[in-house]
Amino acid sequence: MAGRAQPSGPAGSGGGAPGLLPLLLLLLSAAAIIPRGDGQNLVTEDVTVVEGDVATISCRVKNSDDSVIQLLNPNRQTIYFRDFRPLKDSRFQLVNFSNSELRVSLTNVSISDEGRYFCQLYTDPPQEIYTTITVLVPPRNLVIDIQKETAVEGEEIELNCTAMASRPATTIRWFKGNKELTGKSEVEQWSDMYTVTSQLLLKVGREDDGVPVICLVDHPAVKDLQTQRYLEVMYKPQVRVSQNYPLQGLTREGEPLELTCTAFGKPQPTDMRWLRVDDEMPQHVVVSGSNLLISNLNKTDNGTYRCEASNAVGKSHADYMLFVYDTTATTEPAVHGFTQLPNSAEELDYGDLSDSRAGEEGAIRSVDHAVVGGVVAVVVFAMLCLLIILGRYFARHKGTYFTHEAKGADDAADADTAIINAEGGQNNSEEKKEYFI
């Protein structure tokens, strides 16, 4: 009929009054809503999407009977009715339409798009099920703030890492090089967004200079998001003394000796000097910068020579112990090498051991003590052996011994008579005669 209004689309299209059939279908669907998850023919899944990405909503029908499928937004506005889009939002695009599925994509997703979307199926009775779109927002910015740009060894510094405007709240992890550290986090919520700040207290040493401190974010919307700052640590010098000549040999009278002092610190040491410990420096010793030269050694040069270096952080030193041998000395000392006496227990922790010469005089004394000890050991062993032999001898000859007394001695008036009357006495002895042929 010419005067009859034609249907212009389903409810929510905005194009004119809805037609009679779509209006009746909408009324039927609103009157009979089937709860989600009751094992009906209509199925869908929840969607999680990162802000700015594409979300895909799928309304599927099992055992389809060609019923009409419709998709509505959280405000109950119709997005798609079959393959027709009444809603004037071009971000919604039809991906697939058939009797068994209505699939729609939503591009450039924002927080305002989050919520429940309804799939409706016009059966008898009508069915409805919803899918939830969850929007993840990665941190807007990740920044590390350091309390002090340049620290001194032994100091405790504060570092703060901030991850701004994320959803959900981020988890912040700290690393120094490859070692994970523990920080303290605080979370602030602004509307639907979260800002997380993590604080790290770190005691630094010289080994930390140039090492990166990394702030890493764990968040479902982003992978491998991190930022880092390199530590700058100042420390006092590390000093080392090396012997250039003679190279690991005996320091004999009349020969030269050359030592070199090297020092490294941050900032680089600017003041370096040689001195003799507990005595004055010999006049014939030549000091040129970091080098010390004695052209003609003699026994008066014996002693400890020290190289000191300093910078803005502090002062350190290394010692060289010199012992001059006779020109006839040919035996190498029992112990060769260099040693460094640490300035403090802290420097021991840093392994600040250098090539400062060990006391060769003490090494020779240790050899003499070994010889004396060996002689004493031999003497003690010999005495023990003698005691054992004597003990065995006396043990074998131990017992009771009896003597033969002269017969008749018991009846004698005195000792002389007993001897005379005894068997084998003087009378009998006269009977013994000797004959010589």
Provide a concise account of the structure shown:
The protein has 437 residues and is α+β, with helices and mostly antiparallel strands. Helices cover 15% and strands 38% of the residues.
Describe this protein's structure.
It is a single chain. The protein is α+β, with helices and mostly antiparallel strands. 15% of the residues lie in helices and 38% in strands. It is built from five helices and 25 strands. The protein has helices at residues 20-31, 345-349, 360-396, 415-421, 426-431; strands at 42-43, 47-50, 55-61, 69-72, 78-81, 92-97, 101-106, 115-121, 127-136, 141-146, 151-152, 156-166, 171-176, 179-181, 184-190, 193-203, 212-219, 222-230, 233-245, 257-266, 271-276, 285-288, 291-294, 303-310, 315-322. It has a five-stranded mixed beta sheet with strand order 2-9-8-4-5, with no helix packed on it. A five-stranded mixed beta sheet has the order 11-19-20-23-22, with no helix packed on it. The longest helix has 37 residues, at 360-396.
Kindly provide the radius of gyration, computed on alpha-carbon positions and rounded to a whole number of angstroms.
53 Å
Mean pLDDT: 80
Helices and strands, in order, run as HEEEEEEEEEEEEEEEEEEEEEEEEEHHHH
Largest sheet: 5 strands, mixed
Proportion of beta-strand residues: 35-45%
Topology, number of strands: 25
Per DSSP, the total helix count is: 5
Helical content class: 10-25%
Keywords:
437 residues; alpha+beta; 5-stranded mixed β-sheet; 5 helices; elongated; disordered N terminus
